[in-house]
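Lab channel / #folding
Pinned by the channel admin:
"Please post every new chain as: sequence first, then the C-alpha cells as a reply. Keep commentary short and put observations after the output so the thread stays searchable."

First post following the new format, from NK:
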Amino acid sequence: MSFFDKNLAMLRTASEVLADKLQAHYDEHGDQTQVDSVYVEPSRSGPPTLRYSDGERDFFLHSPYDPLREAAQWAESAIEKSSDGNFTVIFGMGLGYGVLEILRRIPQDERVLIYEPNWQLFYLAMCHTDLSEIMTRSNTTVSCDHNIQNAMFNYMNLFELAAFKGVRMISNPAFDKLPDSYLFDRLADKIRYEMTAVGGNVQTLMVMGEMQQMNIMLNFPQLLDNPPFRHLIDRFKGKPVVIVSAGPSLEKNMHLLNQMQDRAVIIAVDTAVKILMANKITPHIVVTGDPQEANAKHLRNVDLPGTFLIAEPQSPISSVRDWTGPRFMCSFHDNIMRWVDRVIGDRGRVLVWGSVAVMAYDIAVKIGGDPIIFIGQDLSFPEGRTYARGTYFETEQKKDMTVAQLQREGTLLIDMVDIFGQPIKTNRQMYSYYNFLLNRFKAPEVRERTLINATEGGILQSDEIRPMPLAEVMEQYMTEHFDVLAMLHEAHASGNDIDYGTLMHELDGLLAHFRLAIENCRKGVTAVERTLKALEKDDDSVSAKKEVVEQYNRLVALRKEVFIHPEMSKMVEMSNQAGIYAFAQGVRSTPLPEEGVTNEYIKSACYHYHTLYQTTKEAAANLLPLFEAARDAARDRMLATSSRALELVAN
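Reply from TO:
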C-alpha cells in the first residue's frame, strides 16, 4: 500500500471533505513531486526533502543532507524555547518530519492543531511520508484552509476549558519564508485574542454547562411530545426565507414583513419577537436556543398560537413549555443531545455559534431557503444603539441600550466600516458572529444559492452576500405565492416516531451507571480519608510506607472506575466544569518532585482528589433525579401508546 492510500484511509475517519478533495486530486495527478514552486527531491541520507524555487528565491524547507536528524534537533530546540502550555499549535508542516518529532516530545494527551494553509503541500506529505502517528493521535487536527475563521473553528473544537493550561505556538523559520506564511501570523493573533477572553469567561462557561444539561432534561418531555426539526429539512426548497434579527436597522423595513406573509418564510430570532408583536407583525417561525433564564424573558407572555417554535432543548423550560403554538425540537448535537439523538433518533441537527441568529441562518439553509435574506442583522451599533426599540431589555428592564452605556461599563469596542463605507462600532461578540457568518457563507451547501443582506445598515458584507433594500428583494425574488403555514402544519403532522422499549433500556442502563459513579465517588472520598490517616501514622517503617502506597494507589484507581461509562462521564463532567477545572489546576500546581512520590506530594494530591470525587458525586447526584424523571416520562408515554394500540385493535 502506498503512503497516500495508507494516509488517506486514516484521514477519512477525521475529515471526509478533505479526504475526498485529496482523493480527487490523486486520481488526476497521482504521486506528485512538484506543487507550484515546491519540489520533492531526494536528500543525501535517503528520505525526500522539499525545495522551494520560484525563479527569485531558492531554499530548502528540510535539510538536503539529513532531514530526519535536522527535524529532531529543531523539535528539541522549538519545545525548549516555547512557552508553557498543554495546547500546541504548529505552523507549517512540510513533509511532516518536524511535526512528528514535536509529537514524540509532548504528552500524549496534549491537544495539537497543525496549520498548513496550503492543502497541496499537505498533499505532498500524504504522498511521500508515513503520517500514521499524526493521523491516529487523539486530540490532533490538521487544518488546511486559507480561511482563518475555519482554522480558528478547528482550534476551538479542540479547546477544552477545564483542561486548558496555556497554548504554545511553534513555527519553523524555513516555513516562514513561504508565500502563505502571513496566514500563520493572522491565526496566531486570532488565537491570542480569543485566549485573552478565556480567563474572564471561565466562571460563565462553567455555569453554562450545568445549566444547559439541566434545561435539556427538564425539557425531555417536550422531546417526546413534539416532532423533530428534521421533518422540515428541504421542506421549503427554493422558497425565499427571511431571517429577522433585533438590530437597530430593523425599524427601517420591518413594516414590509406583513406584505410577504404568503411569499416568504419569516423566521424571527427570539430577541425580535416582542418588537414584531408591538408592530402587529406575526412571524411564521420563532427560534430559541439560549439556556440562560434571562433569555426566557424575550418570550414571556408571548401569545402566538399560529406561529411555530423551533427550540433546542437547552432553552429555558418556560420558553418551550409556555409556547402557545406548535413546536419542533432540534438538536445542537452536543452535551446530552448526542445521547438523545442516538437513543430516540436524530432531532435534526442545527449549527449554533454563540448567537441565535447563527441558529436561525442554519435553519434557513436546512429548510432549503433560496434566497436567504437577513434583516435587522446589523452586527454593530448604528447611531450608537444596540437593539431596535421594543426588546424586553428596554421595555421591561428599562435598561439604557446605547453604546455610550457600554463604554461607561468598560466594554471593549471595535472600529469597523458599515455597508455605506462609514465608521461604526461593534463589540467582540458581534465581531465573532460576523466572522463566523462570513465563513458559513462560503460553505458548499449555499454555493448555488442567493444570500441577501436587506438590513439596510450594519457591517454584514462579503463577496458571497449582496446588499439590497428589502423592497427590491420583494419585487425581484418574492413573485410566487405559497401557503407557508400549511406546509409547516404538514411537516408537523409527521409526528414523532420513538422506540420506547429501546429508550427505556437505555435510560435504565444510564441510571445504573449514575448510581455506580455516585457510589464510587463515595469510595473515593473514603479513600482520601484513609490515605490521609495512613500518612499521619507513617513512622518510616516498611509496613507504614506500604500502607500509604496501597491507600494512595486505591485512591487514584477509583478515578477510572468513576468515569468508566463514556456517555455518563461526559454528562457529569459537563455539569461539573468547576470541579474538573479545580482538580486539573490543582494537579498542575503540584509537580512530581525530582526524588519521586513523597508524602507531601501524596497529601497535596489527596486534597485535589477529594475535590474531584466530592464535586463529581454532587454533579451525578443532581443529574440522577432528572434522568429518573425522564424515565418516568418515557414510561408514561410508552403505556399510553400501548393503550391506544389496544383500543385500535379492540375497535
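NK: Residues 219-482 form one domain.
TO: also worth noting, DSSP finds 25 helices and 18 strands in the chain.
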